[in-house]
Amino acid sequence: MGRAKDIEMRVIPAKLANDFVKKHHYSGKVVSNSSLHFGCFLGGALHGVMSYGSPLDKSKVLGTVEGTGWNSMLELNRMAFDDTLPKNSESRCISISLRLIKKNAPQIKWVLSFSDGTQCGDGSIYRASGFKLIGIKKNKNTCKLPSGDVIHKMTLESSPNSPRGELGGRSYYELTGGKYDFSKYVEEVGGEILIGFQLKYIYLIDKESKLNVEELPFSEIDKQGAGMYKGEKITLKERQKLSTE
After folding, report:
1. Residues forming a β-bridge with 78
2. What is the pLDDT of residues 219-240, one digit of tens each?
3. Which end of the chain is flanked by fewer CB atoms within 10 Å, N or C?
């Protein structure tokens, strides 16, 4: 199986990255804003992908860190690994990718990422990689369709004029009359809102950067009942116990 330190990281083409993400990410979807893709190779084979890019609405997040310029931050907006890599590979790959960004794109001062506690987990990999927790909020923006597919509100709002199969070829805007009306969409498709939490993490590549938001202790995850691992509720204490067994 190899060792985590034997993993090789390199920038890969978008098509190779997107094909891997569609196959191995729990959502089965890519983020169109992704522009920088790292491949994680072991024994010459691709076993992981991390895709960075601009947030869907960058203007809303620039104020997170003092003095952020338009092109001085990125979002880690997709991360997918298969089951082949050894323990601790994910955190090692994130750390290497951040070092490569720092070396080759010095204008990037910080990285943002979100953990989906509705379907996946509460961000244990981010915590292990030195990210700071800066937000926990209830997530009511994820809808499960009768087909079993899952779609997030942001997917609809980022491409509101695109025809959608579940709407019979109509676009989101055609359904809502040009408005952001997620509840109308859910009612129209006969969907089910998946209740959970979204956790917001940040990594300061530039250690002199100053947060304009409060850093939350990781204990706040349990306090708000936001702990999640592979779609199941779990506390940090329970996870730590499992890791030692």
Report:
1. 51
2. 999 888 888 776 677 777 776 6
3. C
User: In the chain, what are the helix, strand and coil shares in percent, each to the nearest 5?
Assistant: 30, 30, 40
* Neighbouring C-beta atoms of residue 86, cutoff 10 Å: 15
pTM here?
0.83
Q: Which of 26, 203, 38 is nearest to 117 (CA)?
A: 26
Domains of the chain: which residue ranges? 4-138+198-217
- For 114-143, letters b (16+ CB in 10 Å) and e give bbbbbbbbbbbbbbebebbbbbbeebbbbb
Q: Is 154 within 8 Å of 56 (Cβ atoms)?
A: yes
pLDDT digits (tens, 9 = 90+) for 174-187: 999 999 999 999 99
CA angle (120 as vertex; 46, 190 as ends), nearest 5: 115
Q: Give dist(CA 54, CA 35) in Å, integer.
A: 8
Cα separation, 9 vs 48, in Å, equals 9
Using DSSP, how many helices (H) and how many strands (E) does the chain show? 8, 12
What one-letter code names the amino acid at 79? M
Spatial CA neighbour of 117 closest among 24, 189, 34, 201: 201
Which CATH superfamily includes the segment(s) 4-138+198-217? Gcn5-related N-acetyltransferase (GNAT) (3.40.630.30)
Question: Which residue is listed with tokens 């809102």?
Answer: 193
Q: Answer for the pair 204, 109: CB distance below 8 angstroms, yes or no.
A: yes
